[in-house]
Automatic annotation (TrEMBL):
A GO term for molecular function: metal ion binding
Keyword NADP: no
Alphabetized UniProt keyword annotations: Metal-binding
InterPro entries named in the record: HARBI1_dom, Transposase_HTH_dom
This protein's name: DDE Tnp4 domain-containing protein
Biological source species: Petrolisthes manimaculis
Residue span of region Disordered: 38-57
Domain annotation DDE Tnp4: ranges: 235-394
Pfam families for the chain: DDE_Tnp_4, HTH_Tnp_4
Top-level lineage group: Eukaryota
Record-annotated Transposase Helix-turn-helix domain positions: 155-205
């Protein structure tokens, strides 16, 4: 404490040589020294308590270090024990082992939810563990020989690696949060997800999802088959939000005037019965629906006599003249001031049946990775993410009614 002495000094001996305090001097606090605030007092009190706690801990350590227990004491207590219990004998210490090889994997497991279909559906989008196991079984031995992104194979079980991948698709958890859920390192999550999402992309692309005309008609809803018997596929475009790229040319290529933000766009085709039969590669949001049709392989899949149902934006009749394929789209106004009664009824029929593709696109977007902006690290995987999410819907129960 800073003090000031009131009239403190007196001269002793020769003038200005020795100065001593008076015997009746009383110390005083400086009048300009402000008192401690409540917060300062609390900080000082916390500091004193912390120091006292540390001192007590160090004291206990010293006590523990000075205590010696001999085996004879245990043996003597054992002989004096009349209860018949075995004497307490110290066990030999086991040699330490590397924790990486000794610790069991105790994160999430797919089998933990085998009896809880509701939770499993919320985590993965698949209706049950049995449904999940069926999808995993279709991969066969291919999963045993995958080349992982970082060059090393994770110790996690292959089934749980697939489980992790679908959870990231479904819930769009960031890498660090997924690592906490599965109790592994962030880098291992990236190694698993990047490898598996690319594997799913190539696996689903190798499957011929395009059905024959007979199969399409057989599984078409009753009313659909009566009104549009030759329709082989219903097409529509969908856009996936994207974080704004840094490069101006990438911003221009991905900017969608329809969504008013940066997106990637894909062309989706479904059968009248509700099977997703076509998923194009993704393009920048600035790409038109017609350009996507031109760059995709859709023209080569249809045959003469087939018909395609689409929205007004797909003004692609000229592209399908050569294979003699009809395009069922709502009629344009062009120079007309109003539509005829016949045109209105036809457009209503098309709209009532074309809604099936929108339902299936909505089903695919229950995988939240398709609704949240793709990050800079996930954007290069957009093709694989979109393809995997849409074709996984084919393993879910059909949402198109049989009488639609």
């Amino acid at each position: 404490m800073t003090v000031i002495i009131k009239q403190p000094l007196t001269n002793v001996g020769d003038p200005a040589q020795i100065r001593r305090l008076k015997t009746d001097s009383v110390p005083h606090i400086f009048p300009w020294k402000s008192a401690l605030t409540p917060s300062q007092r609390q900080r000082r009190e916390r500091g004193r308590k912390l120091q006292a706690t540390e001192d007590s801990r160090s004291a206990w350590k010293d006590v523990g270090a000075n205590v010696e227990i001999s085996l004879e004491d245990f043996e003597q207590e054992g002989h004096e024990n009349d209860s018949g219990m075995q004497p307490c004998v110290p066990q030999p210490i086991k040699e330490s082992v590397d924790s990486h090889s000794q610790t069991d994997f105790n994160g999430l497991h797919a089998r933990d939810f085998a009896l809880n279909d509701d939770t499993f559906h919320k985590l993965t989008g698949l209706i049950s563990y049995n449904n999940f196991a069926m999808v995993f079984a279709t991969f066969g031995d291919e999963v045993e020989n995958m080349n992982y992104y970082y060059g090393w194979k994770p110790k996690m079980d292959l089934e749980d690696q697939f489980f992790l991948t679908i959870i990231r698709l479904r819930m769009n958890k960031p890498t660090w949060e997924t690592a906490i859920m599965f109790r592994i390192h962030d880098k291992e999550v990236s190694n698993i997800f990047i490898t598996w999402i690319n594997f799913l992309y190539f696996h689903f692309k190798d499957i011929d999802w395009w059905p024959s005309r007979d199969l399409v008609q057989y599984f078409s809803p009753t009313d659909f088959r009566k009104k549009f018997s030759t329709t082989l596929v219903i097409i529509d475009g969908t856009e996936i939000p994207l974080q704004k790229p840094k490069k101006p040319i990438a911003q221009q290529a991905t900017y969608s005037t329809y969504k008013n933000r940066n997106t990637v766009k894909a062309l989706i085709g479904v059968t009248p019965g509700g099977l997703i039969s076509f998923v194009s590669d993704v393009f920048g949001g600035a790409t038109s629906d017609r350009q996507i049709c031109e760059r995709s392989n859709l023209v080569n899949k249809v045959e003469s006599g087939d018909s395609i149902m689409a929205d007004k934006g797909f003004n692609v009749q000229d592209m399908f003249i050569d294979p003699n394929v009809e395009i069922n789209i709502p009629e344009f106004f062009r120079k007309k001031t109003r539509l005829s009664e016949k045109s209105v009824l036809k457009d209503r029929k098309i709209a009532s049946k074309r809604v099936h593709v929108e339902r299936l696109i909505g089903l695919a977007k229950t995988f939240k990775m398709l609704t949240s902006p793709l990050s800079v690290t996930d954007a290069p995987l957009a093709d694989a993410i979109v393809t995997s999410a849409f074709f996984l819907c084919n393993y879910r129960p059909c949402i198109v009614p049989t009488d639609a």
